[in-house]
Task: inverse folding
């Protein structure tokens, strides 16, 4: 290389070094801004606790590190908040919703007040897959899954829209199980106390994480028999022989109905944004959620708080599942919607 060529190379390298780093449009947008995480449930409850854990760490994972503020917009299983996300909130990535699993199918089932198309929302992720468990107390006559089809199991529940009432009702309608459901206990802890007193035989749905937190002695001393797992995938702490509810289906139609109903368990603590976000910001929020879900500080805090982060689902996988559910035949949707109507 000639002296002149070397000089040109040196000058070019110097000029390149002096250029500013390539701008990151996502970081430039979020830098100095405030992001609101709107939690569709009341303050102090489980969904609020999960939502605030998400909000507390989120800034670290969004380019530009915006200020993140959590607020509550409670009401009707987060349907008003979801309506707001769909129609009223800015579509720029500065507002994020935290809802419940049924938000993905509420409008599909024509739930009262649900005025949105879940397929159009920007799904960011789900913090946990909740596996409901059908359980019988040690004194109950029902001891096995097969017994549910031949022997009445008296189960206590909260309100008509709670899983411990709705899910056994669905199994009765679709599968022909013999649950007798007594609602009105107010809370699962009250139902548990009624089981111990002998007032009822069991519970139609209680999450493993709640049992291990509220009644760990049941797990230690074998006070309960687990009968069915209410989700689309099994809980890692459950024995493999405890079947999934969808595996109890006797026909393809039954299985499809059960998939529609219980898919909400797999995306039980969803995070989503309004429709139409700029693609690069939607990707940044999904990447932020993915980083959040495997961050040691987040997982450590969740463990201290006894919050389960089991099989978190990414936003793209949620979108695929929601589209598949919405593509099911109309008669299957109608039958699933009818099955969840307790007393109908």
Result:
């Amino acid at each position: 290389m000639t002296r002149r060529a070397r000089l040109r190379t040196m000058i070019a390298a110097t000029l390149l070094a002096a250029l500013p780093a390539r701008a990151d449009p996502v970081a430039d947008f979020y830098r100095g801004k405030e992001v609101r995480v709107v939690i569709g449930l009341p303050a102090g409850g489980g969904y609020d606790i999960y939502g605030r854990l998400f909000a507390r760490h989120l800034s670290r994972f969004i380019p530009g590190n915006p200020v993140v503020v959590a607020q509550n917009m409670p009401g009707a299983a987060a349907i008003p908040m979801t309506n707001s996300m769909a129609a009223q909130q800015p579509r720029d990535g500065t507002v994020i919703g935290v809802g419940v699993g049924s938000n993905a199918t509420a409008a599909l089932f024509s739930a009262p007040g649900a005025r949105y198309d879940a397929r159009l929302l920007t799904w960011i992720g789900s913090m946990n897959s909740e596996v409901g468990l059908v359980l019988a107390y040690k004194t109950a006559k029902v001891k096995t899954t097969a017994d549910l089809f031949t022997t009445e199991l008296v189960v206590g529940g909260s309100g008509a829209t709670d899983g411990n009432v709705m899910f056994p009702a669905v199994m009765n309608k679709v599968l022909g199980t013999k649950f007798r459901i007594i609602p009105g206990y107010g809370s699962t802890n009250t139902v548990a106390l009624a089981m111990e007193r002998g007032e009822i035989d069991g519970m139609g749905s209680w999450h493993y994480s709640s049992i291990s937190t509220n009644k760990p002695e049941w797990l230690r001393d074998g006070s309960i028999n687990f009968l069915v797992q209410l989700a689309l995938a099994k809980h890692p702490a459950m024995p493999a022989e405890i079947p999934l509810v969808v595996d109890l289906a006797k026909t393809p139609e039954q299985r499809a109905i059960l998939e529609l109903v219980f898919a909400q368990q797999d995306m039980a603590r969803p995070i989503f944004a309004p429709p139409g976000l700029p693609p690069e910001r939607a990707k940044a929020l999904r990447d932020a959620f993915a980083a959040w879900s495997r961050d040691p500080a987040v997982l450590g805090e969740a463990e201290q708080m006894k919050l389960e982060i089991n099989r978190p689902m990414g936003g793209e996988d949620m979108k695929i599942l929601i589209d598949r559910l919405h593509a099911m035949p109309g008669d299957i949707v109608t039958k699933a919607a009818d099955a969840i109507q307790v007393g109908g």
Observations:
- DSSP finds 13 helices and eleven strands in the chain.
